[in-house]
Amino acid sequence: MQAEIIPIEIESLEEYLDLLLTKDHRDPFDRILVAQAMDYSLDIVSRDEKFDVYSVRRVWGRSSGITSRSRSVSAGVGN
After folding, report:
1. pLDDT higher at 43 or 67
2. Looking at residue 74, what is its pLDDT?
């Protein structure tokens, strides 16, 4: 697995402004991660189930391997 720092682009900010704002998940940093995941077609690596309301794939590694939980809307992300 390789990590890369990606800039926050205008397109990601536009995604950010269009995101569903729920009363249970108002963390602006998490929401920019979701916006970037959508903009760059990336997965979110987190054990936090609050990401499941968004149209991104969430993965979480365990000793037995990587598990994933995804919700899809009209376009798949992170395929």
Report:
1. 43
2. 25
Distance CA 60, CA 22 (A): 22
Contacts of 19 (CB under 8 A, 6+ apart): 31, 34, 35, 54
H or E stretch at 17: helix 10-18
Cβ proximity of 55 and 73 under 8 Å: yes
The single residue listed with the structure tokens 């979110």 is 44
pLDDT category at 38 given cuts 50, 70, 90 is very high
Angle, CA 36 vertex, CA 6 and CA 72 arms, to 5°: 145
Q: Please say whether the beta carbons of 32 and 12 come within 8 A.
A: yes
pTM of this structure = 0.70
Please give the helix or strand (H or E) that residue 35 lies within, else none: helix 28-40
Coil, helix or strand at residue 65: strand
